Amino acid sequence: MVQVGLLEDNARIAKLCATMLQYAGHHVTVYEHPRECLDALLTEVVGRHVVSSRSVMTRQSATLPIDVLILDLHLPDITGIDVLHSLRADPRTRSLPLIFCTAATPTEVASALTIAPQGRFIEKPFTYQELVAAIDSVLHSTH
After folding, report:
1. E strand or H helix at 102, and its extent?
2. How many other C-beta atoms lie within 10 A of the C-beta of residue 14?
3. Is this entry keyworded Coiled coil (predicted)?
4. Phi and psi based region of residue 77 (left: phi greater than 0; alpha: psi -120 to 50; beta: remaining)
5. Which end of the chain is more exposed for a tag (fewer CB within 10 A), N or C?
6. Separation of alpha carbons 90 and 45, rounded Å
């Protein structure tokens, strides 16, 4: 079972995607807003203290709450590209496997893949098989 993070602002698409992933045997955490996702991935709880990713504290033993993130590039307030820049700037999330599930333009997809060349892209609308195959592909390429 894989811990999948899903950053998708469209509630219907998020529910459909989460249902498909759960059917495939994965655990899904849905992030409805980019800030929620970044807060979850770029901060950690140590004991009773919340430590920002920008802390000087060594975090080598810390683990992320997800194994892979499915990222929509069209998001409110903060673009998917901005989320991607934040994730790649942090040592803990720099190598987090990513899947871009989006209806973005080819230029936007190319930009995202330039920042995260190991990422995978699936276009909306997508099938169950495409979604599951993308997760298998991105996880196998990182090992």
Report:
1. strand 98-102
2. 19
3. no
4. left
5. C
6. 16
pTM of the model: 0.85
Question: Whose CA is closest to 39, among 54, 24, 28?
Answer: 54
Give residues with Cβ within 8 angstroms of 125, minimum separation 6: none
User: Any idea which fold 3-53+62-141 has?
Assistant: Rossmann fold (3.40.50)
Residue extents of the structural domains in the chain = 3-53+62-141
The tens digit of pLDDT for each residue in 94-129 reads 999 999 998 888 999 999 999 999 999 999 889 999
> Do the Cβ atoms of 130 and 122 come closer than 8 Å?
yes
Cβ contact 2:68 at 8 Å: yes
